[in-house]
Amino acid sequence: MTQLAFASATELARRIKDREVGSVELLTHYLDRVDRFNPDLNAIIVDIRDEALARAKAADQALAAGRDWGALHGVPMTVKESYDIRGTPTTWGVPELKDSIAEKDALSISRLRGAGAVIFGKTNVPYMLSDFQSYNDIYGTTNNPWDRERAPGGSSGGSAASLAAGMTGLEMGSDIGGSIRNPAHFCGVFGHKPTWLLLPPRGHATRGVLSPSDISVIGPLARSATDLALAVGICAGPDEIAARGLKLDLPKLSKSPGELKVAVWRDDAMAVVDGNVAARVDAVAEALAQAGAEVDFDARPVEAEHAHTVYQCLLQATMSARLPAERYEATAKRVEALDPDDTSRDAMVQRSQVARFRDWNANNEQRTHLRWQWHAFFERFDVLVAPIMSTSAILHDHRPFAERTLTVNGKPEPYFNQVFWAGLASGANLPATVIPTGLDDQGLPIGVQLIGPEYGDLVTIGIAEFLEQQGFSFSPPPGY
Q1: Catalytic: 179?
Q2: How far apart are CA 267 and CA 244, in angstroms?
Q3: Among 153, 162, 130, 127, which Cα is nearest to 395's?
Q4: Is 155 marked active-site?
Q5: Class of 2-256+464-469 per CATH?
Q6: What span, in angstroms and rounded, lies between the C-alpha atoms of 234 and 229?
Q7: What does pTM read for this prediction?
Q8: If I label 8, which of 74, 222, 272, 277 is the partner at 20 to 30 A Cα–Cα?
Q9: Which of the following is catalytic: 8, 80, 82, 426?
């Protein structure tokens, strides 16, 4: 059964439907592993096993009666704490929200249940989903199963750790600054950041919020690329309002690997990457070249500093809008104290946290220009291969953000510099798929992202499926 714990959700569904294993049996196996491993990892922090066991029993009974619930019939899974699941807390790691109990399921949760999923828990996050680590004052710190002295990433850190440790069959996370892709990279699993709003996010919000957040998306993490496509297919598509006039028709990968045109952005002065990370980007590029793809290391869709500045201004405006009133006011006072003559990029980004709509709109206009530049780029190329982070998994560091640094190639670098790589896709609404590519010289996993055109989600996932077949696949951490 241990091998089954690390199977893909697609394979688990097949085995359930072929009566090789029952849903109750499989869920019990995962729960046994949760009881064994989760005390040291603290990845799954909300437990609804009694409800899940009842649903798993119903799944087995339905199958015995010839009723198939869908593509995830009976498959046990968990979801990020920031999703609403009826009767459970949705806190986003904020102590003031610890008693905020969801009254109904998020839309994506309803769609996953409609496809037969058995949801048995929720996974840990950082405060307000705003860190490359996953810890908060409600649920504590989540550890990386590859090295418990290190972070599993954030903000979907509990999601990735649970998958890597074989404690769940599938996961749903969210991403605004790499929050799906960073944990997938740190924990050696697959993750997909979808095109903005391709998967309706209703119910992935703090209480009472219905408006979709700028930049932010919801999306899957998994142990196979095929599972990413499965979850996107289940959760994507217009909500009830948009469905009156819209239907989804995503293009799939229609080219053979040998027909692909691949751009590679392996490093940049904006966020220097460790040599181990750059080497894994090279390995992915080489695998595609060996398959016959045309590979270009020099092509660039946008100017790096400009694109990053626009993304940061929009990101900071979005993140500050989520702050409690007293913290927002403190931010406003800090910005007011800036020298009016300071026109540096750092000052510009800080001012964007309390920007007037006119200023936000100017940044949005710049983003739209960047989107069209990316569109033109993807008229010539099928995919961009790039790092997602500067280093492999970092040691736990709970100091104030301003005191944190990263060591890259033996030198200290600012902690948040590495969001540059996430911002390439996030700042232009693009899909990006992270694949595991192997281990660095510390024995830690390294992921690489495949960025595609808007609504090219199944294209990047299709390329990920090919690369998975070439050996860029999930491997369990030792001891699990």
Answers
A1: yes
A2: 44
A3: 153
A4: yes
A5: alpha beta
A6: 9
A7: 0.98
A8: 277
A9: 80
Domain residue limits, the chain: 2-256+464-469, 304-367
**Successive 10-residue mean pLDDT values, the chain, 480 residues:** 93 98 98 98 98 98 98 98 98 96 98 98 97 98 98 98 98 98 98 98 96 98 98 98 98 98 98 98 98 98 97 95 88 91 85 93 98 98 98 98 95 95 98 98 98 98 98 98
Verify whether residue 252 is a known catalytic residue: no
Distance from C-alpha of 127 to C-alpha of 104, rounded to nearest angstrom: 23
Question: Comparing C-alpha atoms, which of 387, 360, 399 is closest to residue 447?
Answer: 387
Which member of 179, 216, 320, 426 is catalytic? 179
